Automatic annotation (TrEMBL):
The keyword Transmembrane applies. It comes from Batillaria attramentaria. The keyword Membrane applies. Keywords: Membrane, Transmembrane, Transmembrane helix. InterPro entries: TM_Fragile-X-F-assoc (IPR019396). The chain crosses the membrane at residues 47-66, 78-100, 112-133, 164-197, 209-231, 243-263. This is Transmembrane protein 185A.
């Protein structure tokens, strides 16, 4: 395991979002099955933590932005700050929807069409943000998800209010279309990984990367499709599974997303005003992590003549960055640095 790549490619924003969604999905399923009798305001606690982190991160980042005008000239700081502001606006609309949904589940005081209005507005705005993100070479996963599901949000609101009496399988038609596209993408990733695996011109690192991507997308899309099919059948009373059992494939997809966040590059450096990569910021706060960032671990098994084997974990430094130096038994002071590219 190479901890250097683990630190460098880690995306803290995705890790927080998917972890909160994982916990919320489990609590919500248990609440629907009456396994727990908590208030919906408590069940939505992971969602509130997620939104609190977004508001705090945006507030601190904006304070640093306006307090230090010279920071605005650093690279693409203006684009990153603008992206953070737009992302915060979308999260506030999403927060409004979640508050209305939680209150409706708790008291039934609102029509679902009113509840979904912030989400529909968010989907419309996301279309323009996607166009802006393409022009400025920014990622737009959440915006793309909202924009392609705008019709699905309308169908859900009308079905929950009883305005339309369609079967849930028909209500989920926009989701089936999106999932078909996703399955085509997964098949393409698998075929591409197989072709590149047999190609002699591809380096081993690229082969492993393609295979890992294909496996990751498969564990993401296939369980998600299974969850949606089971949920539609459960709402149509075709099966009698509990919501907790139905949610298991969704939890598998969310766990996959949490794992993929450790290999997702990118992210906005202006959250909380850190103005640097999360890896460098973490090393600045905890310089001792430098030692572990430059170490890879390998497990070796030594078999003795009696047949007993003892696993040993050895710390092997990166050979490509080590230089042969005479052995010096005198202890040396460790100087903290802000990049794990530098060896110990």
């Amino acid at each position: 395991m190479n901890l250097k790549n683990l630190f460098q490619d880690f995306n803290p924003s995705k890790f927080l979002v998917f972890s909160c969604l994982l916990v919320f999905s489990l609590l919500f399923a248990l609440r629907l099955d009456s396994t727990i009798e908590w208030s919906y305001w408590v069940v939505f606690l992971p969602i509130w933590i997620w939104k609190l982190a977004v508001v705090c991160g945006s507030t601190v980042g904006s304070y640093v932005w306006w307090k230090n005008p010279h920071y605005r000239l650093e690279g693409d700081s203006y684009v990153q700050y603008k992206a953070m502001v737009m992302c915060t606006g979308l999260h506030l609309l999403l927060l409004m929807f979640e508050i209305l949904a939680c209150d409706t589940l708790e008291t039934g005081a609102h029509k679902w069409l009113l509840v979904f209005i912030p989400l529909i507005v968010m989907a419309v705005i996301s279309i323009f943000i996607c166009i802006w993100a393409v022009k400025n070479e920014r990622s737009f996963e959440m915006e793309l998800f909202c924009s392609v599901n705008i019709l699905q949000f309308i169908f859900l609101a009308l079905r929950l209010d009883g305005t339309i009496a369609w079967s849930w399988v028909i209500v989920f038609i926009p989701v089936w279309i999106v999932m078909c596209v996703a399955l085509i993408g997964v098949l393409y990733a698998i075929v591409l990984a197989i072709i590149l695996l047999k190609s002699p011109d591809i380096i081993p690192e690229q082969r492993r990367g393609n295979v890992s991507s294909a496996i990751g997308y498969s564990f993401l899309v296939v369980p998600l499709l299974v969850f949606e099919i089971l949920l539609a059948n459960r709402l149509d009373d075709t099966n009698s599974f509990t919501f907790t059992a139905i949610t298991v494939p969704l939890l598998m997809s969310l766990v996959t997303l949490v794992c993929l966040s450790f290999g997702s590059k990118g992210g906005n450096n202006w959250w909380f005003g850190i103005r640097k990569d999360f890896c460098q910021f973490l090393l600045g706060v905890c310089p001792c992590l430098q030692e572990y960032g430059n170490i890879s671990y390998s497990l070796q098994h030594n078999d003795s003549e009696s047949g007993n084997s003892t696993p040993e974990c050895e710390k092997v430094k990166d050979i490509s960055k080590l230089k042969k130096e005479p052995i010096d038994e005198q202890p040396k002071a460790v100087v903290p640095v802000l990049s794990i590219e530098t060896p110990d």
